[in-house]
Every structure is written in structure tokens, then in C-alpha cells.
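User: Look at the shape:
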Amino acid sequence: MTKHLRFALLLVVVISSSSLSATTTPQRNYFSPGKAKQKVNANEKAIRQVEREFETALSKGDSATLDRILADDYVEIDAQGGIKKKTDILALARARARPRGKSVGPDITVDGLTIRIHGDSAAVVGRTIIRYQFMENETSSQQTQPQTPANVNQERFIRSYSRVNGRWRLVTWQTTSIAKR
């Protein structure tokens, strides 16, 4: 081989390996580790706040807060496989907000939240414990009311959020029942 041919082959190998390494090298994080962690913590804190507002709005039937939190194209798949949209949730909230007679429950507890943030998207995974206390007759007094055992259901959920115009909006919610043992 001539010197020129060897040089050309060497040049091709060097260019090929440098372009290959450029495509396989992960992107560098130009934020300092402390700033990146602070940004994640601020986003996680914001998501937790929206989660609290969402749970409170659901329990109180606060349709104005739900309207602010839910994305316009929100979709929910419930534990029975049913599909609800934003308009369905707002209608349920308005119905729940109307004055009604004495009722018991449900008592809803959310725990085990895990939040994963990916840029302007976030996934929230958790568990909901729902306790219902059924009454024989709502008009009878507490002293004469026989206490029936509470019914407890548990569900796992995943909610996805998207940051739109600087505000986290709930886009999807999927729930799965946890089998009773």
C-alpha cells in the first residue's frame, strides 16, 4: 500500500470512530448536580401540591379546582375499565357539591406516592384505600343505628401530568383494583 492510501484509510477510521463515539456518548448534563437535583425537587414538590389539591377537590366536589387541574383532553380509565373524560368528572363534582342528607364515607386515603419526572411530563404512582361505612337507615339516630362493618377497597393508580404554560395539568389517570385476600 502506498503512503497516501494508508493515510486515507487511517483518516476514514478516525472519522468513523469519532462520529460513532459522538452518537453513542450520552448527553452531558450542563447543570451542576446540585442545581439539577434542586430542579427535580421543585418539580416534585409542585406535583405533590397538585396531588393534594386534586384529592381535596375530588372529595369536596370542587369543580373549579378540578377544571384548573385537569387537561382539556383528560381521560380516566377506572378500575372497572370504564372511561371518563373531563366533562364527566366535572359533572360528578357538581353533583357531589350539592347539599344532601347525612352520609357516611367514603373515607379515602392515598399513600405510597412515587413521582417520576421526565422534562415537562411526570408520572405519579400510588395506592388508594377506600373505606365505606354502610348504614341501614340514614334517618335513624346514631344510638339506635346498628353498625355494619366497613367495606375496604384498595386500588393502585398511575396518573400522568404534563407541564403546560408553566403549570402541571393532569392528563391521564388509570386505576387497578387490588384483589382482596
Notes: Residues 4-32 have pLDDT under 50 and may be disordered. Strands lie at 70-77, 83-85, 107-118, 121-133, 150-164, 167-178. The chain has four helices and six strands. The domain at 31-178 is CATH 3.10.450.50 (Nuclear Transport Factor 2; Chain: A,).
